[in-house]
Amino acid sequence: MPPFPFSEGKEVQSLNAFLMQIQTFFQSLQHDFYRCFIEEDRYMYLVEGLGNTLLITFVAVIIGTILGSLTAIVRISYAGTARKSWWLKLLNGICGLYLTVIRGTPTMVQLLIMYYVIITSPVVPPTVVAMLAFGINSGAYVAEVVRSGIQSVDVGQMEAGRSLGLNGRTTMMRIILPQAFKNVAPAIFNEFIVLLKETSVAGYVGIQDLTKGGDIIRSITYEAYMPLLMVAAVYLVMVIGLTAVLRKLERRLARSDKR
Fold first, then answer.
1. CATH number corresponding to 43-252
2. Are 212 and 21 within 8 A, CB to CB?
3. Domain ranges in the chain?
4. What whole-number distance in Å separates Cα of residue 74 and Cα of residue 80?
5. Angle at Cα 133 formed by Cα 217 and Cα 172, nearest 5°?
6. Which residues contact 111 (CB under 8 A, 6 or more apart)?
7. Are the C-beta atoms of 148 and 70 separated by less than 8 Å?
8. CA 154, CA 178: separation in Å to the nearest integer?
9. Which among 113, 187, 196, 205 is positioned nearest to 148, based on CA atoms?
10. Second label for 183, Cα 20 to 30 Å away, from 23, 91, 145, 149?
11. CA triple 246-65-124, angle to 5 deg
């Protein structure tokens, strides 16, 4: 006979109660998952939101890269020109004001100003407004990245291009910028990752992005943790995937530098 039968029985009961709590917890998770995503195909809110998030991010990156490159070229040209014309001074002043305002104000405030103040026409879809707002915001940061990339190119590259008979614009476009973009490609790709997360505020102007899709599910089911955790998980998976691509890009650029 065991010396402490009552104690062993109490331990078994505690273990059974603990196992029952675990089983109840997983059953509750299964039920909440079904209500939030399977019932009435509510997962489509996340799928549609993910599509809008990726579309806004992709177009905004293109706008930001073009706008940032032009801004960087203007500022580099102004700094490297001895006799500055009035139009170059004007462009440099506009670019400086643009960088100061965009980098000094929150992204969400810029989005709201773009939607409620600048573009108030109901004909323009909110998605287009978000693309412009995020693209302009991204351009201010890309401009500094590209400017640092241009300055990292040896000055002799410009002199070599001019000695071959190329003018300043052709030398910049054909020789300097390709090398600069190669140097700053990882930083620009990292800006793409940051912008992907910043688009989570697009729901403030009525866009059903990924975050808004999770919020819609929450308002229907009154379950907060399951939709929000799923949204966070989707963002996390995308960022991890993009980070892996960025590392692969950095390794490939490093190998090409050694040739």
1. 1.10.3720.10
2. no
3. 43-252
4. 10
5. 135
6. 129, 130, 133, 134, 201, 202, 204, 205
7. no
8. 13
9. 187
10. 91
11. 120
How far is 112 from 115, CA to CA, in rounded Å? 5
Helix, strand, coil abundance in the chain, percent, nearest 5: 85, 0, 15
* Cβ–Cβ under 8 Å, residues 252 and 81: no
Tell me the HSE value of 42 on the side-chain side, using a 13 A CA sphere: 23
Global confidence as pTM: 0.83
User: Taking 90 as the threshold, does the pLDDT of residue 106 lie above it?
Assistant: yes
Name 224's Cβ contacts closer than 8 Å, sequence gap at least 6. Answer: 218
- d(Cα 229, Cα 210) in Å, to the nearest integer? 12
Residues 22, 16: Cα–Cα separation, whole Å: 10
Q: Of how many residues is the chain composed? A: 259
* CA distance to 73, 121, 221, per residue, from 142 (Å): 12, 29, 41
What are the tens digits of pLDDT across the range 202-211?
999 889 999 9
Tokens of 207: 């866009």
What are 129-155's pLDDT values in tens digits? Answer: 999 999 999 999 999 888 888 888 777
